[in-house]
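Re: the request from the purification team.
They wanted to know what the chain is likely to look like in 3D before they choose a buffer screen. I agreed to run a prediction and write the result into the notebook, where they can find it.
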Amino acid sequence: MRRLRQLAERTPADRERYVDLLRAVAITAVVLGHWAVAVVGHDAAGRPTGRSALPDLPWAYPLTWLVQVMPVFFVVGGFANAASLAARRARGGDAADWLLDRSARLVRPTTVLVLVLAAGALVARLAGVDPSLTRTVVWFATVPLWFLAAYLLVVPLTPLTYALHRRYGLAVPLAFAALVGLGDLARLADRPGLAVGNYLFGWLAVHQLGYAWYDARRGVGLRFPPARRLGWALLLGGLATLVALTTVGPYPISMINIPGERLDNAAPPSLALLVLATTQVGLVMVLRGPAGRWLRRPGPWQAVIAVNAVVLTVFLWHLSAAILLVGGLDAVGLLPTPPVGSPAWFAWRVPWLLMLSVVLAVLVAVFGPVEARTGRRPTRGDPTARPHPPARRDGPGLRDPGTGPGFRDRPPARRHPPPRIRAGLAVVGFVAVVAALAVNAVTPRHAAEPLGLPVPALLTYLAGAGVLRLLREWPGTRGPTPPGSPR
C-alpha cells in the first residue's frame, strides 16, 4: 500500500488517468465474462471438458454489447501508442526505440506463459499423457493469445498509421471500415477467405479512434463538438444503427462468436463490431467527466495503478486459472456440473468466480513481477506511461544518463545497428511472434502436439521474441546507463 501511495503521489498532473481506468475495466470485463459463461462437463471418458454457455442462452445475446469490450482496449491502445510514440520522439528517440519498448511490455509476459505451458506439456509427455489431451489443455490456456496476436499486428504499424491520421484524420478509419464492409460481403457470398483482411482492417479502424482522442485532448487536428454532446450522439446513433444491423441487417445480435451463425462479429471483426466500437466510444465520452473526478481521489487511483501494473498477466493467465481449478476440483471429486441455465448453474457462478479469483491471484503473484518490471518512468510528455518510481537522486536533482560516479570510467558502448535496420529487425521480430500465435490459434485443439503448441510455431515465436530481446539489450540502443539508474 505504501508503494501504491508513492506511485499515486508521483503521477504527472497531465496524465490521462481515464485511459488507465478503461484498460483495467476492459480486461477485467473480459476475464469475468469468460469465467461467467463457462460450462464444465465430462466427456465419454470421464475427463473434464469446457465450452461457452452463450449458445444455450439466447436471451443474453444483447448483453454481449456490454461485455464485448475489446474495441475499448484498442481505442485505449491507440491513445497510449500515439502518446508514447510522440513522447519517445520528443526525447530524441525514434520509432524503433519506441517499438522495442512496446515489445518489452507485450512480449515478455507472453513469453513466460508460452514457456511455462511448453514445459508443462513436456513433463506431461514424459509422464505418458496422450499428446492430444495435452494439446487440448494448452489450446484452452492459449485462447487469449488470438486477441494478443491481433494487437501485436497493429502495434508495429503505429508510426505509419499515426502519420496517416495526422494527414487524413478520420478518413483513415472510414476507409478501413469500408474494407471491413467488403470483407463482410465476401463472407455473405460464402467466400470467407476474402475476409481475412478484416482481422487487420477492423482493429486498425478502432485503433485510429484512439489517435483522434489523443489529438483532441491536445487541441490539435479536427475540432469536435463538446465531448458530452458528441458522446451522446455517438452512443444513441450507434445503438440505433446496431439495432438496424442486427434485426433488419444480416448481422447476428451477439458480438461474441456463436457456432452456427452465418457471420461472426468478432473473428474477424465485422462492420457491426465497428459500430459497437463507435457506440462504446460515445459511452466513454459521456462518462469521462465523472470518472475523471473520481480518479482524482487517492483510493480509486491507487486501485487502477495496481491493476494496470499486471493487467496483461491477468489477461494471459485467466483461463489457465480456470483449467487449474477445474482439474483440482475434479481430482478430489468436487466438480459440480449443473445444466446450463438451471438455478443450480446460476447459483454456482458465485463460488466459481470467487475460487477462480483466488487461483488467478496466486498466478499473478508468481508471474506478475515479470510484467511489473517492464514499467518505465513516466515523463511529462507521456501521459500514458505506467507510474514508476523515479531514479535514485544524486545530489539535488535526478541522476541523468551520461553522468554520475563511474560513468566516465566505463568503456564506450558498441554502436547499435542503423535505425532503418534496427526498425526492420524489430518488425521482423513482431511478425514472427504474430505468425507463431496465429499458427497456434488455427491448429486443431485435438492435434497430437508433444509440446502442447505446434513445434514450428513455438520455435518461430522464440526466434521472434529472441530478436526483440537482443535488440532491446544491444549496447547503446537505449543510450548509456550509469550505475544505479533504472533501465
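For the purification team: The chain has a mean pLDDT of 85.
Please add any questions underneath this entry.
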